[in-house]
């Protein structure tokens, strides 16, 4: 199986920028008003945007050289259809909780390579080191 390098840190900074711009440009106002919350909406929007990016990266086999184009398309989608991204995240999380989706795939993972969902909560580097024998996850 071909594994693609994923510039997680770089993409995280860019998605943070997209989320802040969407908030400043009032693209999230309707959802913030509907939920009567701002920070939880922005957090969910960030996660939804990252989920979409990860999906595009993996399914379309994107590389570092594609990142500028991918981010531009993502920014347009995020500002134009924030509710769509949030709804996709909501549906995805419901599927994960039922065991019908993996962290980045559409189907449940089986076998020794299945992500250990109960182990996904960590608070620092020491927690990551304790799981290093389980292998490295690449998107």
- Helical content class: 55-70%
Q: What order do the SSEs take from the amino end to the carboxyl end, as H and E?
A: HHHHHH
**Cα distance spanning the termini:** 11 Å
- Give me the count of strands: 0
Query: How many helix segments?
Result: 6
Q: Indicate the low-confidence ranges by residue numbers.
A: 105-139
How many domains comprise the coordinates? 1
Mean pLDDT: 76
Computed over alpha carbons, the radius of gyration is 16 Å
Shape: globular
Quickly give the structural class: mainly alpha
Question: Biggest sheet, in brief?
Answer: none
Query: What portion of the residues fall into strands of 2 or more residues?
Result: under 5%
Organism: Pan troglodytes (Chimpanzee)
Domain ELMO: 1-82
Protein name: ELMO domain containing 3
What would you note in describing this structure?
By secondary structure, this protein is mostly helical. The protein is built from 6 helices and no strands. Helix content is 58%, strand content 0%. The termini are close together. This is ELMO domain containing 3.
Pick out its properties.
139 residues, ELMO_domain-containing, mainly alpha, 6 helices, ELMO domain containing 3, ELMO_dom
How are the secondary structure elements laid out?
Layout (H helix, E strand, L loop, with lengths): L7 H17 L4 H7 L3 H21 L7 H14 L1 H16 L27 H6 L9
Helix pairs in contact: 1-3, 1-4, 3-4, 3-5
Pfam families: ELMO_CED12
InterPro entries: ELMO_dom, ELMO_domain-containing
Protein name: ELMO domain containing 3
């Amino acid at each position: 199986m071909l594994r693609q390098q994923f510039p997680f840190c770089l993409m995280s900074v860019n998605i943070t920028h997209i989320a802040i711009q969407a908030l400043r440009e009032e693209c999230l106002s309707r959802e913030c008003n509907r939920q009567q919350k701002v920070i939880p909406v922005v957090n969910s929007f960030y996660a939804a945007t990252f989920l979409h990016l990860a999906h595009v990266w993996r399914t379309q086999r994107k590389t570092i050289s594609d990142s500028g184009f991918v981010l531009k398309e993502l920014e347009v989608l995020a500002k134009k259809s924030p509710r769509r991204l949030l709804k996709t995240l909501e549906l995805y999380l419901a599927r994960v909780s039922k065991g019908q989706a993996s962290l980045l795939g559409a189907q449940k993972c089986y076998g020794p390579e299945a992500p250990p969902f109960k182990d996904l909560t960590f608070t620092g580097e020491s927690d990551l080191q304790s799981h290093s024998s389980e292998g490295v996850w690449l998107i």
